Amino acid sequence: MADSVLSLVLLAELGGCLIAWHRLQPADLAFGEALCRALALTLVGFGLAIQFLFATHLARFPWLLDAAAGGLWLAAFRYGRRRFLAEVRSALATAARFPCAWLLGAALAGLAVTVWVAPPTNWDAMTYNLSRVLVMLRENTLAPRHVANFRQFSFSPGFDLLHGFFLRYGTDRAIAAFSLLAYATVVSGAYALARRRGEAAFALRVALVVASLKLLPLEAVSTKNDIGAAAMAVACLVAAARLLDRPGLGALGFLLACACYGLSTKSHFALFAGPFTALVLWARRRELLAALAGGWRRARPRLTAAALLLGAALAVCLASQWHNLARHGHPFGPRDEVARHENADGLAGAAANLVRYALDVADVPGPWWYAARQRLHDRLLGPGKGPGATMAFHAAAYAVGNELREDAAWFGLLGGLLVVPCVVAGLFRRNDTLCQITAVSLVAFAALVCLNITWFSFNNRFFTLFFAASAPCLVAARSVWHDRRWLRLPVMAVATLTLLAATLANQDRPLVGASLLPPANPPWEASILDRPGGRRGAYAAFFDGPLLLDYLTGGIFPGGRGLLVADTDSVVYPILFYGRAQDWLLASRQAPLVPVDGGQADIRDCAALKALIRRFDVTVVMEEPAALACLAGEKPVMTTRAPWGDVLVFTAGKNAVGIGN
User: Fold this and answer.
1) Main-chain phi, psi angles of 510, to 5 degrees
2) Which of 324-333, 384-393, 410-419 is least confident?
3) CB under 8 Å to 265, separation ≥6 — which residues?
4) CB of 619 closer than 8 Å to CB of 565
């Protein structure tokens, strides 16, 4: 109950910031565009603020973030001119006349229920998206030393750190709220871009098409960071639309702020932001240079301060690259790990990857297509891995039981049959600057992904940005798919069914029970509204039952020190979260050194590891083969199982001494 109340308070704070940003938007913006900008700035504002706190080692003072929110509210009250509630009432009265608006509202409500009820149990979240936030909070830095895997240190943390808004106060209920905000940014951005070129009914239909692209609503209730990068791409589109129509410093600042923050959400965001920002600035170079010159004459101190703030934001957003370069000699992490994720086969690998992604984007439901896709791949590229791939193009990922699972789903029928053709056609629309710039940037993004990133079966997430940012191309193709009623009706029907399926029957977090759904293999998860054990039960399932988390939650040694020795793929988040009565230090073969007695002990040394379990109040050793073999003769107080191996728990008593920091 306490965590629910706390989460409600934090959601109210988040909503207050959204309203504040909306009040500060220019008065001449339409409501949809102002709302999209306010949503984006809520993400950017909190994202940059949290990163600044970590960069200055002030993250140990969680109230500073609340103080910053209070400062924003005061600024909005003093300088804001828009009226949020009045505009919302007017927008709802208009939207109530359109079925698409009701459908979008119902879908957002269903996704909000999922965010509130379902815990974030995705593998990425458990191993690094959320666990790294707890590790960074403990060490009060963006560059933690004690990690379970390199991903907790090396991957861009900008969107993951938003979850610290909840975790700093010990709650993770509604922690996916930022993903839902990012999804709302994408949908409202699609509406705003379409509304610039057409009536409300058309704009709502474009928004529905984008909202229904299957992976987007699935990621809206997760804590993975891909939808955060997509939201920043859409915010850049909205900024560019205004910049191209009315070049000004305000629109330029919004574009650059979203581009900077986007770089901190996913490193591959640069593959889109680089060409897109360059093309937009080049298209309005004369007007922007004139605006900058005028701004310099009229308000030199203000322009200088804005430039310095933007430079500081860029430096902080690239912090993970600086830290990686200093620690590993490569801006993206350890060289051997980076090499595993790179396409090592050049143009041949890129061409092969393009074929694989083309087969994936043709997201036709039904087992007949899964088998046909595999046969097509084997005929074109041969069985097994082939060039450009790290894993085989395997049929196991394509099954009815994975159609609506975020790790395997793509973007539905409309992604392949409508969005991709519209983007390709957008390359040739010379009379629509925004559409052409967007299409060039998206095609360049896709080509660079094919060229640089090796193929995995779960690379669907890399294309979240591509499909989320497709609205200008859909708008430009209005006469093809929308104005022809015989095409518009089936498009709307497919969009409606896909969105409802992704909202109600998310195979990781379904709102409806399996008895109401068709048989699937892998089988459906139980409805999130009817799961035994509640939220903790979902985490306890990783450990073969509730015993481990119950034991650690009890706070065996409140304020004591805990050592967690884990494998690089271990699910460590539930232990760090529920066992927070202890101060945990992580160790693994990728970060094996543990500070002790002013020196360091190496967990790879069996004698040192045996000594360590007698120094820490509680030690959990999970799935790390060498450590488990070393401690086979010791007597744990508890044993259980995790997904990849055994878990041993040792205690050394309340008065363990000699532990370093």
Assistant:
1) -70, 140
2) 384-393
3) 47, 156, 158, 159, 225, 228, 229, 232
4) yes
The residue whose two tokens read 């409508």 is: 418
DSSP code for 127: I
For 219-247, how does the pLDDT look when each residue is reduced to its tens digit (9 = 90+)? 999 999 999 999 999 999 999 999 999 99
Please answer whether residues 55 and 319 qualify as being in contact, where contact means their C-beta atoms are separated by less than 8 angstroms: yes
Angle between helices 84-95 and 200-211 (to 10 degrees): 90
Phi and psi of 60, rounded to 5°? -70, -5
Q: Please give the DSSP secondary-structure letter assigned to residue 527.
A: P
Two tokens, residue 541: 């399932």
Q: Is-contact 270 453, C-beta < 8 A?
A: no
Cα gap 223→214, rounded to integer Å? 16
Residues 6 or more apart from 578 whose CB is under 8 A from it?
536, 539, 549, 552, 553
Residues 6+ apart with CB under 8 A from 659: 561, 595, 596, 615, 616
| CA–CA distance, 119 with 652 (Å, rounded to integer) | 32
- Can you give the pLDDT at residue 401? 63
DSSP 8-state assignment for residue 338: H
Query: Measured between alpha carbons, how far is 438 from 181 in angstroms, rounded to an integer?
Result: 23
pLDDT score of 396: 56
In tens, the pLDDT along 347-387 reads 999 999 999 999 888 888 877 887 888 888 888 888 878 88
CA-based angle 339:130:43, to the nearest 5?
95
Residue type, 333: G
The answer to whether 103 touches 496, Cβ cutoff 8 Å, is yes
User: Cα(572)–Cα(144) distance, rounded to whole angstroms?
Assistant: 16
Residue 315 CA to residue 321 CA, distance in Å, equals 10
* Per-residue pLDDT at 445 exceeds 70: yes
Q: Which of 69-83, 401-415, 481-495 has the lowest mean pLDDT?
A: 401-415
Distance of alpha carbon 279 from alpha carbon 244, whole angstroms: 11
Can you list the positions of beta strands (E) in 244-368?
none
Burial grade of 249 (CB within 10 A; 0-12, 13-18, 19 or more) = middle
Cα 164 from Cα 158, distance rounded (Å): 11
